[in-house]
Amino acid sequence: MTVAAFVLSCLGFAVAVLAAWFAHGQKKAAESAAVEAKRSADAAEAVAAVERERRAEEVADAARRRVVFGLLQFGGRQFALRNSGTDTAYGVHVDTGGLGIQDEVVDFEEFEAGHEEAYIFARTMNPEQASHIVVTWHLQPDRSDEPRTVRLLGP
């Protein structure tokens, strides 16, 4: 009987060693899976951060392109102020700085996308005369937003 008990004890010990070895392998696999999951989560967070930054730049760029004023020269002293953006500008004020030679309208309720307004500019010998045109506008029809301003080089 002692021999049988000894054999059973040895078998029990061998099973325990095998179970410990198997558990150790499972622990290593779980640790490896946890490290890989962390790496994957970090990569996903980095991708999400890049995507958020790209989207913020996209939104800011779209806001910048909503209203884009520029001066187009048609020859000599003939120019046109053009809104080449995608949206209408509201409460537009154009300060020609004394460069205009005719009595042009300098305030507009609305200045739609694609709209052009003709001007004739002249420079004088007066060094105090402005060398640029300042355009101020709002993006909101009720003018509740901060006014935006752009300085365009004159003739």
From TrEMBL:
Keywords: Signal. It comes from the Bacteria. Residues 1-19 form the signal peptide. This is Secreted protein. It comes from Actinokineospora diospyrosa.
